[in-house]
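seq as requested:
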Amino acid sequence: MNDWVLNRFRPLMTLVLVALFCTQAWQALPSQVVLEEEQHSAMRSSSTATRISITSPAYTLTADEVTMFEATLYDAVNNIVSGQVEWTSSNGTITSDGTFYPWSAGTVSIEASSGALVDVFNITVQAGVGQTLEIVTSQVQARSNAILEANLLDARGNAKSANDVVWTLDGVYAGVGTPQWIPTELGDVHVRARLNQMEDNKMVEVIAGDPYEFQFEDNLVLRSGESVYLEVKLFDQYGFEMNHTDAGYKTWTAENGTMSPVGRFTATYPGVWNLTVSAGNVTGFTTIRVVPADASLSQLTVVEALDSYVAGESYELVTTRTDSNGYTGSFTPPLGNFTTSSGGLAFVDGRVHWTPGAMGAHQINVIDEGVASSLEVNVVHGIAVDTKLELNPSTLRAGQQSTLSFWAIDAVGNKWLVNGTMELLGGNSTHFTAYEGYATIAPRALDLWRVEASWYDASTNVRFESSFQKNTVAGDLPFIELNGAQEIL
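struct tokens:
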């Protein structure tokens, strides 16, 4: 009976013993680990840290991401020791356990310190996922290459270049990506950029290019002893104007007279004098005409004094005046003060110009501040522009001699005889006589007369040709003959 019971419960007892054994083994293992950790902890605590080192899971991250840094303290023999670590960052936020939350894109310095021990780790923060589109181009120069650019901004406003952007300029398609644009006029242009569901609009200003040259006012005239503040305009190489101060500080010079640092010119001696202005490598040049202050004495003259003046050409008229200070120089009175018996007068670029007309001896008159003067001139014909054959009397009448003259004509209508050749093509040659510049015709019958003339102008190397054709009409009635005269009835 006892054996039967022992055999029946032997397996159960075996299982119990195994369970007890396993339980004791599990309890012994943690005790050993705890002991080792306590020994290791005692060893770390017993050493002094001599350096600190930061480790990072990455060298770059986006502004949308978060990362955790670790810092380890080492003693002199590179054993890990325990200690308190403090974290700081040059940008963004970092917690006490080393968790870093980036803000702005760029290089961020992560600093871990423990007492006097410091380590720095530089990590690159890049822009995150684009949330909005922003046009970068804001101002461009006229007639210069400009590139249309746009950025994608993440949730924190960090920018990165946008690709595949579609552009329009004042509503006109301009390209995709970063197209080039060459504006031709100054002013504001409506620029629109689109990318997927994002869009940005901006008024881009087109301005003048780099300073290129100064320009003075035209036709500067000043009386001796007077002063004027000179004004200049500043332009780029394409002629677009900008603020004259954009070139920087200006330096002024004058060939004669005095010039202040701010561009005030005081005239001294009459004449035409050079003026310059410069700012860096940008310069401007002009001339100013200084005239006598008054007209104590005044005499009308032609700038290009000649014995004869050609009809149709232009000549400048001035007065040579001497003022009360003894200064003598040329002056241009108002156009209305001039009169002439030949041709016309015009005011061009601040000067009075005379264009002779009719040939012969003529007179020009002017009143210069109450002082009257006149000039006797001789006008000759201009360059021939045409020729003609002219009959005098104009009717070709039988029994009457007529003169056929060969005239050259200039642009203002002057005419003069020219010694060309005349060829009789119709009519009685015995009644036609040619001379230098003219011919005589004395018809005796009712004929058709035709004459062709040719003249070569050596001064212009031009040949002129003219023709004449006219029928002879009956002449004056010398007598009446009756039918049956002298017959005996």
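DSSP finds one helix and 47 strands in the chain.
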